[in-house]
Amino acid sequence: MTDLAGADPPGDAAPRVLVVGDVINDVVVRPLSVVTADSDTRAEIVRRPGGSAANLACWLASLGTPVCFVGRVGRADHAYHRDHLTSFGVEALLAGDADRETGTIVIVVDTDGARTMFTDRGANLGLTLRDVPVRQLARASVLHLTGYSYFEDGVRATALELDRRARERGATVSIDPSSVAFLEEVGPEQFLAWTSGARLCFPNRDEAAVLSGTTDPIEGAARLTRHYATVVVTLDGDGAVVAERGRPPVTVPAQRVRPLDTTGAGDAFCAGFLDSWLRRADPVAAAAAGARVARAAVVRLGGGPPTPVPSRSSTPRSSP
């Protein structure tokens, strides 16, 4: 990847988001009765394109924000994931991996919509700087990265360099920590050292507790502003806490719904937040917008928005 010096300044007529991260084949399993050990249990099983970063890109494009997604898939799945992303208007730049299969997650959803995930990241682990065109980073107003890009050695080097180059150009860096289990594995101090200085951070309640050292999400959000300019702690169906450095945290309520599947709720929230925040830099209003999008996400199986149904009179959207 060549140096960015002398490239055009970030941004088009509308703010543009570059999302770099995981593409996943999701297999969502919802048992329809008590699980029977060592025998059969009736279940609803659906297969969906997924991945935290890819889901966010789809939600963001569906809301009308110009977005480019960069990721890596197994070569056999290239057209499948490209077509899915572009159906929402995402500019999809996917590298096809000849040696690894597309990442796969088996998600078991309980009766309350909570989920247990079995994760094989597959081709995502091969993402390198060569997969990210210089032009895309140069055009971006926002670079969004997920914690998954920091949890493995090889991909981490790519994430750290993209973060550095984006900040060098004055673009906003947005971080979603993504996984409390992996945060505990690498350690909160190390994750904060890798990501401190990002403009936006979106931990959920449990991730904020690990990163801040307190289970109080309001205090945790305030503490994390030592590392990030704006911290938004999502609270499941209870809304969010917004903390800006130098200001008291604000609690943003949400309308509760009965969830069917909480997979991708955080990705939907981030998308709603960024879409609103890029139009008007009011993080409290943006958090309310994020909560509305997340509410739409949890009442259906799968982590992304409903696939658009093309009409004869419509033409595919293209990114500017």
Would you spell out the secondary-structure blueprint of this structure?
Layout lengths: L16 E4 L3 E8 L11 E8 L1 H11 L4 E8 L3 H10 L3 E7 L4 E8 L5 E8 L11 H6 L2 E5 L6 H16 L3 E5 L3 H7 L1 H8 L4 E2 L3 H8 L4 H8 L5 E5 L5 E5 L5 E3 L12 H15 L3 H15 L23
Helix pairs in contact: 1-9, 7-8, 9-10
What's a quick, concise take on this entry?
With 320 residues, this protein is of the alpha/beta class. The protein has helices at 52-62, 78-87, 134-139, 153-168, 180-186, 188-195, 205-212, 217-224, 265-279, 283-297; strands at 17-20, 24-31, 43-50, 67-74, 91-97, 102-109, 115-122, 142-146, 172-176, 200-201, 230-234, 240-244, 250-252.
Task: Describe the protein's architecture and organization.
- This protein has helices at 52-62, 78-87, 134-139, 153-168, 180-186, 188-195, 205-212, 217-224, 265-279, 283-297, and strands at residues 17-20, 24-31, 43-50, 67-74, 91-97, 102-109, 115-122, 142-146, 172-176, 200-201, 230-234, 240-244, 250-252.
- With 320 residues, the chain is α/β, with parallel strands linked by helices.
- It has a single domain (51-103, 124-297), classed as 3-Layer(aba) Sandwich (UDP-N-acetylmuramoyl-L-alanine:D-glutamate ligase), CATH 3.40.1190.20.
- The strands form two sheets. A nine-stranded mixed β-sheet has the order 5-4-1-8-9-10-11-12-13, with helices on both faces. It has a four-stranded mixed β-sheet with strand order 3-2-6-7.
- The protein starts with 16 loop residues before the first strand and ends in a 23-residue tail after the last helix.
Name of the CATH homologous superfamily:
Ribokinase
Order of strands in the sheet with most strands: 5-4-1-8-9-10-11-12-13
Terminal CA distance reads 23 Å
Kindly state the number of beta strands.
13
Give the helices and strands as they follow along the chain.
Answer: EEEHEHEEEHEHEHHEHHEEEHH
| Tally of contiguous helical segments | 10
